[in-house]
């Protein structure tokens, strides 16, 4: 790496548990090195991340992410974006209120990612996304995905699989831990961790503003900011019917993917936050579909599954509408 960068390493600080280190070079530069080994294995992903970052900087000419200084098949060296910090850390510390502007900046830069890359990523590899299979054990519970709901499921998959003008570079893990912002003053936001990025329907990146991801019990408040930014490059995002159909499909697909975890959660002790989170996820996704008046059978099925989980898990039978946006999931 020293020969590639033309400078000697004088300090190396691991960022655990990831295969990441902050490095100081003898010419004064600070860089971030990411490899494919560590607790969270990322085999083959540094190469994809480097390709995505180069596409953004060199192919599309936008500054929304760190620049690539060097890369190999199993490692990538990027500019160090400090003193920026992860947005999720600020929200965990202070709540979302003081950082509403930074949250909106996150939504805006994600929408911009879709806007500038739409129709320009045909040579980039596809992003992996659900569905990879339906949840187990629902037939026995009397809430199987079948009939009209199953037909809508297939149609929703088709909407996302054939994005048309919405085909863009999707981040692949669009959560608040993957955007760095300045803690004071203007956010000066940058997206990071493009290891899961790929060609996909742009609206997949909007899901996290409507349906809780792994870290949160509830979310909300920046979805329209994302849409407006996306519409700057994808005019079809202005069409309520088209956008709502895609957003509802994406949110429901996320809920189905998260529902595959229910047997694991079933074995956890009462009071585990992940149970309430799953109920919240199902109801948030169904709520999105209802607001946009799309996928009535599939969203109705999501409500029925949520009601079944509430009966099965008494500790999860709570008023999720009372959860403040960006309430942290404990544990």
Automatic annotation (TrEMBL):
What domain of life does the UniProt record list for this protein's source?
A: Bacteria
Q: Which InterPro entries match?
A: Kinase-like_dom_sf (IPR011009)
Name of the protein: Aminoglycoside phosphotransferase domain-containing protein
What does the record give as the organism's lineage? Bacteria, Bacillati, Actinomycetota, Actinomycetes, Streptosporangiales
């Amino acid at each position: 790496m020293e020969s590639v960068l033309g400078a000697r390493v004088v300090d190396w600080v691991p960022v655990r548990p990831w295969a990441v280190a902050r490095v100081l070079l003898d010419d004064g530069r600070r860089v971030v090195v990411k490899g494919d080994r560590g607790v969270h294995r990322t085999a083959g992903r540094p190469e994809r991340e480097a390709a995505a970052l180069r596409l953004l900087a060199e192919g599309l000419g936008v500054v929304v992410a760190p620049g690539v200084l060097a890369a190999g098949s199993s490692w990538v060296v990027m500019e160090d974006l400090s003193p920026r910090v992860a947005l999720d850390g600020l929200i965990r510390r202070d709540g979302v209120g003081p950082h509403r502007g930074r949250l909106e900046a996150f939504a805006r830069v994600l929408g911009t990612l879709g806007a500038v890359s739409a129709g320009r990523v045909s040579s980039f590899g596809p992003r992996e996304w659900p569905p990879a299979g339906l949840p187990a054990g629902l037939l026995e519970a009397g809430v199987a995905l079948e009939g009209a709901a199953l037909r809508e499921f297939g149609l929703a998959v088709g909407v996302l699989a054939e994005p048309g003008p919405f085909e863009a570079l999707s981040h692949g893990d669009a959560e608040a831990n993957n955007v760095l912002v300045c803690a004071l003053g203007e956010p000066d936001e940058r997206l990071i961790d493009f290891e899961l990025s790929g060609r996909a329907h742009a609206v997949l990146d909007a899901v996290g503003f409507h349906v809780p991801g792994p870290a949160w019990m509830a979310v909300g408040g920046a979805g329209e900011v994302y849409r407006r930014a996306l519409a700057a490059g994808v005019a079809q995002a202005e069409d309520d019917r088209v956008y709502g159909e895609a957003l509802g499909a994406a949110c429901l697909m996320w809920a189905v993917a998260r529902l595959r975890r229910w047997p694991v959660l079933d074995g956890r002790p009462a009071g585990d936050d992940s149970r309430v989170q799953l109920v919240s996820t199902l109801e948030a996704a169904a709520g999105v579909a209802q607001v946009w008046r799309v996928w009535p059978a599939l969203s109705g099925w999501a409500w029925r599954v949520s009601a079944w989980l509430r009966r099965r898990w008494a500790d999860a039978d709570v008023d999720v509408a009372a959860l403040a946006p960006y309430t942290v999931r404990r544990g």
